[in-house]
Amino acid sequence: MSVRVYERLRGEIVSGQLAEGAPLVEATVATRYGTSRTPVREALRRLEQDGLVERGARGLRVRCRGPEEILEIYEVRILLEAAAARHAAERHTRLDLIRIGHAMDAAAAADPTDPDAMAAANRAFHEEVWAASRNGTLIDLLTRLNSHVARYPATTLTSPGRWAEALRQHGDLVRAIESRDGDAAARIAEDHMTGARDIRLRMYAEELRPVAN
User: Fold this and answer.
1) pTM of the full predicted structure?
2) 46 in the same domain as 135
3) What is the C-alpha end-to-end distance of the chain, expressed in Å?
4) 123 vs 5, 68, 120, 126, CA distance in Å?
5) Residue 123, domain extent
């Protein structure tokens, strides 16, 4: 039951159904889900550990978004993506290269006017690189970290020129992995995610900009 409550709450937070700052009272959530407070308490504890829930002045609430959170997320993500790329270059198998190549081809074939298609193809490519790292803990951390990014609905890939740049960087990364050049792979991944961070910050600032009448 606690797992089901956790997954449902997590889905509502990531999708934005539960808005940032929304209070998460055990009794209220339990009533809404038709369960006891114990599984809700356990689910909220897990969500707090995931960083999707935070403690406010009046108890637990959905974590608020902001530039500080973006910087925190990408500070960690840049390091983890670089580590995954380095390990993928050093530890990959022939099958890994085939899977990464298929994911890269699928990304290249994605509709550049469809944000969801671009985001899905981009994620699939990165997941294949993570898998090639052969590090389960690293993959778990990156997967959990992606939940934080998912709370920002618009993909950075819609920024003018970003999709073409991402595809080019994917190609550079694949070549570095194929040649087992860990330093180059890490550097490319770091540059790629640094660019994503800068675009994400710019997009957030544009969200807050008042619309002229």
Assistant:
1) 0.80
2) no
3) 50
4) 26, 24, 5, 5
5) 67-208
